[in-house]
């Protein structure tokens, strides 16, 4: 897959750290990687955004950012309030396609969830994925409430004819509660797609070298890693099924 679109079931679910883990794992497998942040919000001029954070953690990746708006809002709202030109899905698709001619893998990280609006016409990351014919990886939280938002996201992807590559848990707790443990089996059932990884909580605070060494162990072979969903369930959730 030359382009992989990464979205979340909402905000603050670990998209950027998961994107970094996917990038680091692909780099370790010998692939060249580019990371495209379609619209960065909540970051001022000169401050490092999500793409820079991915590069810090993952290593030698090409980064690109199409637009930046200072307020931490949906891109369409942030662009309007800042009096700036919004990003449109076709621009995201064009930028990703160009990067794909020069890299083995292009990761397109969205803002918030799948249907967060980029522009006043209602363009979304889903529209960019459709233009690219690219699979979508969904980052979901571990605990209570995640099944509903994950299934809604999966249904929306399928209603648009988009390929749901799988689900990655963006922040797996050190001491998971019953809901999180049960969700290891329930998440793939709700999504109708495989669980492709679980990134430990706090991984973004690791030193870059430690992050890069550990990342392949958090992701499944489809994402170039060695993580095994069944072995993880047996270890992390004994007696939950």
TrEMBL record:
Q: Which residues bind Mg(2+)?
A: 16, 50, 109
Q: Tell me which domain of life the UniProt entry assigns to the organism this sequence originates from.
A: Bacteria
User: What keywords appear on the UniProt entry?
Assistant: ATP-binding, Biotin biosynthesis, Cytoplasm, Ligase, Magnesium, Metal-binding, Nucleotide-binding
The top EC class is ligase
Q: Where does ATP bind?
A: 12-17, 50, 109-112, 170-171, 200-202
Pathway per its UniProt entry is: Cofactor biosynthesis; biotin biosynthesis; biotin from 7,8-diaminononanoate: step 1/2
Task: Write out the catalytic residues in the record.
Answer: 37
Keyword Cytoplasm among record annotations: yes
SUPFAM superfamilies named in the record: P-loop containing nucleoside triphosphate hydrolases (SSF52540)
Cofactor names: Mg(2+)
What's the family? Belongs to the dethiobiotin synthetase family.
Q: What is this protein called?
A: ATP-dependent dethiobiotin synthetase BioD
Q: Which organism is it from?
A: Streptomyces iakyrus
